[in-house]
Amino acid sequence: MQGCDPLVLTGWLWPGWRVWTLDADRGIPEERLAVLSHVSGAAAETLRAATIEPIAVRIQGERPDAFSTWPWTLTLGARNRKRNGGIQFCPACLQADDTPYFRLPWRFAWHTGCVVHKTTLLDRCGACAAAVTPHRLSAYAAHAAVCATCLKNLQKAEPEPCPPAVLAFQQAADQVALKGFGDCYGETWNAATWFATADFLASLIRRANRSPTQGLTYLLRSNGVVVPRHIPPIPGTRIERLRVEDRQDLLAGVWRLLNLDAKQLRATLKASGITRQGWCEKEQSVPEPLARFMPELPESPERSAYPPRKRRAGGRPRHEVVLMMNRLQRKLELRTQ
Ligand SMILES: [Zn+2]
Ligand SMILES: [Zn+2]
User: Among 8, 182, 330, 337, which is most buried by a count of CB atoms within 10 Å?
Assistant: First the structure.
C-alpha cells in the first residue's frame, strides 16, 4: 500500500533497528511505538492493544521476560529475517478479507482451528512448506496473504477439518484469556493457574509418549486420552514450538483431562496406582488445582512399563544419534534466537 517493500518501509520508519529479526507482535519499545503512532495516526494505546503483550501478561501472571519463550505464544524461530514458524492462518478467513491480514489469536499455541470455518489452521505454505513471512514480500505482492518463498496465494490452500474437541478447548481457553479466570476441578482459578494446569497436563501426555509407566498409561487410557506417538520426544520442546497437528493431538487429550470433575480424577488416579514420581517429574512444579491430589498418591517408585535398555557395545544405534542431534540443534537454535 505504501509502494515499497516492507523492509524499506521499516528501515525508513526506524533507521538502524532491525524489527523483522525480532517478534514485534510481542510489543514494540515505547520510543519506536511513538514514531509509528506519529506517522500512522493511530494512537500508541491502539497499537499496543494490537500486540500479544496484554494477553501474555494475563497468562503468565506478570510481564514475561523479554528474552525467553512466552508461555502459549508460538515461537517464530527467527534467524535474521528468516523464520521457521510461528504464524498460523485460515485460508478462508484471508479469502474473505478485503485487505488480508493475520489475526492476533493465530499466534497463540492453543489456537489450532478456525471457529468460523471449522477447519485446522495452517502454519506453512501448502506448496513449498515454508513458514509464513509476509515481511519478506516485495512491493509487487498483491497482498500480505502470499507465500514470500514461492509466491503462491495462501488464500487458496485447502485445510483439513478441525476436530471438535480441539475447537472446544480453544474456545474455553479464549474465554479464560479474555476474562482472566477459568474453572477446573470444581473451582475457579486465575488465568495463569488455569493455563499452567493445561500446560502440566500436556507435559503429562507427552511424558506418556517418551517414558510410559503402567500407572500413567492407565490414567490416560481410562480417561480416553490418546497418546500421540509422532511428536518428537525431545525434552524442552515446549508446546510453543510444536507444529499445529502435534498441538491438536495434545490439546484434545488436555481437554479430556480438564473436563473431569475432582471426584472422577481422584477415582482414576487411585485406580491407576500412579505414584507421586509418576505424576510429577523431578523439579517440575505442580499447579495448584492438581497439587491437592498429590498427598493422596503413593510414594513408592513405580516400575517402568518397559525394562531399561542395556547399552550395547560399539556405536550408538541410529535413533539415539538422531535424538542427540535434534537436542544439539535445539540448543543451537536457542543460542541464535
Ligand atoms: Zn476461517
Ligand atoms: Zn510457498
Answer: 182
For the segment 65-94, the average pLDDT, to the nearest whole number, is 90
Measuring CA to CA, which residue among 271, 294, 276, 293 is closest to residue 219?
A: 271
Centroid of ligand 1 to alpha carbon of 156 (angstroms): 12
**pTM of the predicted structure, to 2 decimals:** 0.86
What separation in Å is there between the alpha carbon of 117 and the centre of ligand 2? Answer: 22
pLDDT digits (tens, 9 = 90+) for 41-78: 999 999 999 999 999 999 999 989 888 889 999 999 87
- Beta strand 181-184 with 113-114 is unpaired
Instruction: Give the H or E element holding residue 201.
Output: helix 191-210
The verdict on 143 and 26 lying in the same domain is yes
**Ligand 2 geometric centre to CA of 152 (Å):** 6
How much is the pLDDT for 336?
Answer: 57
Verify that 97 and 239 share a domain, yes or no: no
